[in-house]
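User: Hi! Is it possible to get a structure for several chains at once, not just one? Here's what I have:
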Amino acid sequence: MFSNYENLLIDDKDNDMNNKETYGLNRPIMQLMKCMVVVVALLASSVVLAAVHNITLTAKTLPNGQLAYALNDNEAVIPGPTLFVKEGDNVNVTLNNDTSIRVGFKIPGLQQSASKVKPGESKKYNFKAKKAGTYAYHGDMRGKELLGLFGALVVDKAHGPVDRYMEANGNAVSVNRSDIDKQFVLFMVGSTFWGTEIASDGTQKPLWANPHPGAVENDIVRFHILSVGPGHTFHLHAHRWFKTGTNEVIDTKLLAEGYDTHSFTVKAGTGVGPGNWQYHCHLIAHMEAGMHGSFIVDPVGGDGAGIIGASPYGNILLGTKPSEPGVVTFEVSDEPASWFRSARGDAIVGLPFDIKTKSLEVIYPGSSVNFIMSDTNGVHTISSLLWPTGAQHMPFDQSSAYRGGGFVTLHTPGLYVFTCKVHPFMFAAVIVDDPNTQDGLDLGNPQNNYTIDLVTGFKNLPTSSDLAVLLLKTFFIATAPDNWQDYSSGQWNVKYPNLPLITTGGVVNLSTLFNINGQALSVGSKPEKRGVGEVWVNTQFEKTAGKNKPGTTSVIDTASWTVKRKVALPQINNNNPHNMWTNRDQSIIFQTQWFDNKFSMINRETGELIKNITVGYSPSHVVTIPTTDDITIAINGENGLYMIPAGTTRVEKMMPTQAHGHISANPHGHWISADGSKIVTPNINTHDVGIYGANGDIEARTPTGNNAPGAHPIAIGMMPDSSKIYAANLLHHTMSVLDGSTGALLKTIELIKDYDPFTGSIVDKDDNGVEAIGVLPIQSPVSPDGKAVVIASMGGHIVIIDTATDKIVKSLPCDPGCHGANFGAKEGGGYYAYVTTKFGNRLTVVDLDPNGNGKLSEAKIAGYVSLVDTPSTAKDDTVSGLPGFGGQGVLAVPNVYNGWVQNLPAHWKDALTTAQQNPIGH
Amino acid sequence: MSFQLNQLCCALELAENSNATQSSPHQALFRKLLMILCLALLLVFSGKSNAAEHIIQLTAEVTRDDGFGNKLLAYKMLSHRVNGQDITNRYSLEATIPGPTLELTEGDTVKISILNAIPGNEVAVPGISKQVSIHVHGVHYNILSDGTLKVINKVDDEGAGAGLEQTYSVYEYFWDVAPGTAGTWAYHDHNFETHNGAEHKGLFGAIIVNPIGAHHYAKEYVLYLGDDAFWGMEINGANKKQSNHGPNPTLTAKEDTHVRFHLIALGTDLHTFRLNGYKWFDPGTDNRINEVAIGPLEKHVFSVEAKHSAHYEDKNLSNKLLGMRGKFNVQ
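Assistant: Yes, the chains can be modeled jointly so their relative placement is included. Here is the combined structure:
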């Protein structure tokens, strides 16, 4: 199905040639269509006196969900129509809005923000082109304009040359408009170029995404490079030009964050000859994200035609121009579940296939996937998780997280899943459907028995295997809140797409196989025994009315096991609060905003904000140094830990997690030894555990995951006497056990040894006496007394390891998206492990030793606590959606870990037993 | 004139589809002779008696193990001859980050070859390039000297080692340091592992193209702004010796001497550079500035009269907190 355009498909193996032909055929039609486009602007601008331009633009929604401006009745294009006027001209713009959201029109530097146009309405804007230059115009929509509502306005001087270029002999030559053979507009947006070609007669032709613009050697070619959003540097190989307004000769130019422009003129191939000369952004992260194309300089006598890029109208599901390569676009967002939201996500959900996710797209071979970080304050990577066996350009990845996006062309049929390495529950799935198969969407390559490869090195996994199905189910639950376990609703429904999918085992329909309809849900009973103090839970996805970013913190009273307070912090638009720690006297809660660059200090007793502090991008965990009370913050999107001295609110320094010049480690959930001498980080980008001295010296970097690629160590637990370190390897499904002083690897505990990835059967293969699995392990603290490690595994399991043997002794069930774990004191002695889940809204309380006999095999779930607010819950904002969801970081107050518990004020110690006050007995 | 002659050579190379020393039976001596003839003609007809011919050999090595098995890559100078005269001794004997700084003059020609000393580089791995290359900014070269992979340039895998399609043990590039190319430019790898290369793993250096009759400086400092440190080196203006390579180097100058800073950014971060207490001319203008925004592979060259000791630093928040700064000691 969805293959009705098969006759028009481009053969991906030879797409250059084919595209060239397509381009040639299209050209006369395009010219006919486009000559209207420029008539208005050109006619007006060719007169000598100041002219008045009347321009009508219409904002439209494209087949792939992107937005674009159209001039008059023409096709809407990205970038928008290039407007040419002269200095001193007056410009009247009528903007019609055919989209479903409010659209504006702003030209930084010329025309400031004015009111926006509601859907279906129109509005007039006018401005005077008072100063020559190249300007970006855009929709002024808090990031939504990055979906395509941007274009170039070129204001040339009314008289004389418009630019100059450099000859091969070094002479500068003035350029009049009539000298120019071609102009190219290239917008740098996210990690993608969007191009337009303007012929010498003014005809405009869209080149779409990452095109290969063409010219003939010695053509005089004027480039207009513009950027909206994160900054870039533009580099064109083998050409050089004047930096605007100076005599400086450059070949690379910074386009600053926000909005920036740079125009220059070259003589194509001068001094260097013909060739496919690459142009690209020169930021490594953007290069790796696919931000490049070629300037094709044909020898004299060639047609200089170039090759068109990927079009929003092109060869994608429901595309209107299947003969052109297409592109689908995901917005990268801080919005729960829709972290990678297809630009046409609402339309996809609206199709009659019961699709609940906005993170699924369908394209045909040779089309592309575009990611744009238009709705996030954090940094991310666009990284392959799985792909069809043998697929080109896989795995797609960047060596550092950054602001921008990604662009990848997919040729091989099958399923591709992308994630962000920093936030590894962000998922986008793209199915490249083989037009030659008629029975359904292809989950793998028909040429390769429909198998997939995983980033962790698993090759040729059948798409009908239990593991492949498990991963698919995880995707459809994580990206669709309708499929989450809402205990306040009393029932659970899971709907998978009602679509035939072709797998290794034949055609399947997930909907008929796995849908869950109306399963009864109840929170379950509260723990019988009380805990000590409070439990703070980052309900990271809960929405409140007073802010547009998600996340609250739910404070549980362990005497009554009720939510006594919700801390939303609407005044700072608190964005995805992820993890917490507290100071010695337990008066201040420290909290990271994982999708932002902010760190907050909160008054524990009142829930009021003390200070919101700018830190590095995507801060994940915070831990104090027990001996000093200094604050250490893992900067998950960058290359170190921020340090804030005790009692202050000022960042003093950043402790690097790697030697100078080495690949950024991107630490996530660190821990600190009880004596304060060692900071231990799980380095998600370099797949190792780092051990750092208090002075910042790197003492060890120990690889985890037995040399498998992409083990992704994510959280650290440490023995109370610092003798051993435990690291959870998210994608390797293992725990690495390291020597606490040398960092030497002692053991790798396999958490899915008992699991058969093909059949799904679970038998005791590791001979530890229990059938237990922990798929996708995340937080894994060691109990304050050092007896056990409790591992929250995202696949829905809580695994308990006996530290005496380093073997699994118990497995307990957990809700989908099981994530955080931490220990707190149980009243009268012993400890509770508090376990959070992202896609459910209750807290699981685990009692490691319910009978007080020390037998970990008797560990059980003591009870559950609803995270949904009640009328008696104190609040600083009104819960407006996803109540109690997104459980991640969890912190028990008082902090009873060895090293910290000793520093508690007396009134906190009084609530603890002698053993709890001295967890390792000295 | 010089340009046309060079293009003649290039056209011939294109026709023969090689300007490299291939592992497989390689092209005839004829081509080399022709090239020498061309270069000779170029010298004769360019009318600039001071145009020099540079013959340079670089290699790329593994270096700077952090003590835990994590390594960087670096270029090393094997040989540099100018009009037959050996000037190799001005360079470090070791592979350095940044790599050797090549001082050239407008009108010069450069024949530069790359060898690959990274272990395993000759073993082809499907989908992964083991090549290292030299992609240079600023000067003139034809498509065979772009230093990119065939997937980009559509002609050849232009580096040393096993590329995606072609393996070379040595690869040679020809640069025409034409009039109008004066300035400081980066050279860097473009081929290692992917078509993006390994410039961010240490494979970068600078060329300084001086106009004919340029001013001489007591010291030249090359400062690459990376993602966590400056990678610098300095050149003694008198004896041209290159030294002091590494992260955040302490730069030294004698009081009242004129010294020149060559900034190039590289990596992912955008930077704001300051040399505290100094002002300089924004290149190509009459504007005096005391800080500059600079992004990857942009360059910014300025000179100052050394008057007082100062720190140079990056104002980017995380880099500043990481200690991305160094001393400029004036004695």
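Residues 1-30, 43-48 of chain B have pLDDT under 50 and may be disordered. Chain B touches chain A through 67 residues (CB under 8 Å).

User: Great, thank you!
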